[in-house]
Amino acid sequence: DPYVERTRTRPIASGAVAPMEALTLFAALGLIAIGLASMLNTPARLLAIVGAGLTIAYPFVKRVLSIPQFVLGAAFGWGVPMAFAAQTGTIPELAWLVFGTAMIWAVIYDTFYAMVDREDDKKIGVKSTAILFGEVDLFVIAGLQVLMLFALLLIGYRAELGFWYYLSVAIAAALMVWHQWLARDRQPAGCFAAFLHNHLIGMVVFIGIVLHYTFSRTGAG
Question: Residue 167 and which of 127, 152, 195, 216 are 20 to 30 A apart at CA?
């Protein structure tokens, strides 16, 4: 972080927070997380161990792997099978489909994010999908966006979701096109804007799911 223009003002990088203070906070939060995980059923507790491993490993894999965004996506998405296991005691195919979709999405938005720091990362030897994809970065991201949309449609089919959900997926597709346009020149500001506005995709799809179940229950009533 101290060697990257965008991150050099972060608390530890700037010296506002000492490394030992950060480690102490990490230990405290880790103990709280262990306490929460202990309240879950056995399948969810086992998955929590894997999730903790992914979370701890991520900051280090960018030094050795060219695809750290996939590890980040797995860490972020791991809450999906955990939630299914905690609620049902099983991990159905739908859970893994949602997990895979979340992982692809993380690779998409974090590649936009990595494009902001690409030149600095090259200088200090940090690896990323932005560096790996190189000049075809936007093309690869577009392919991942299409794959994500297909996965969202498959989720809707498997979960028997209706009109509102599919409308939200269509809006998500339009947002993806907009993000491509924002990053079209690969300028840091545009790539960062594309990264930041990815939250709109999650919000829109969430609203579509809520509307589906809201109107489905209203109709059933």
Answer: 195
Residue linked to tokens 């089919």? 157
What pLDDT digit, counting tens, does each position of 123-152 carry?
Answer: 888 899 999 999 999 999 999 999 999 999
Q: Are 13 and 2 in contact (CB under 8 A)?
A: yes
Length of the chain: 221
Distance of CA 189 to the CA centre of its chain: 20
Phi and psi torsions of 79, nearest 5°: -65, -20
pTM, two decimal places: 0.87
| Residue pair 113/69 in contact by the 8 Å Cβ criterion | no
Q: What is the arithmetic mean of pLDDT over 89-106?
A: 96
Query: For residues 95 and 86, what is the distance between their CA atoms, to the nearest angstrom?
Result: 12
Q: Is 168 exposed, middle or buried (0-12, 13-18, 19+ CB in 10 A)?
A: buried
The DSSP result for the chain, as a single string, is -TTSTTTTTSHHHHTSS-HHHHHHHHHHHHHHHHHHHTTS-HHHHHHHHHHHHHHHHHHHHTTT-S-HHHHHHHHHHTHHHHHHHHHHSS--HHHHHHHHHHHHHHHHHHHHHHHHSHHHHHHHT---HHHHHGGGHHHHHHHHHHHHHHHHHHHHHHTT--HHHHHHHHHHHHHHHHHHHHTTT--HHHHHHHHHTTHHHHHHHHHHHHHHHHHHHHHH-
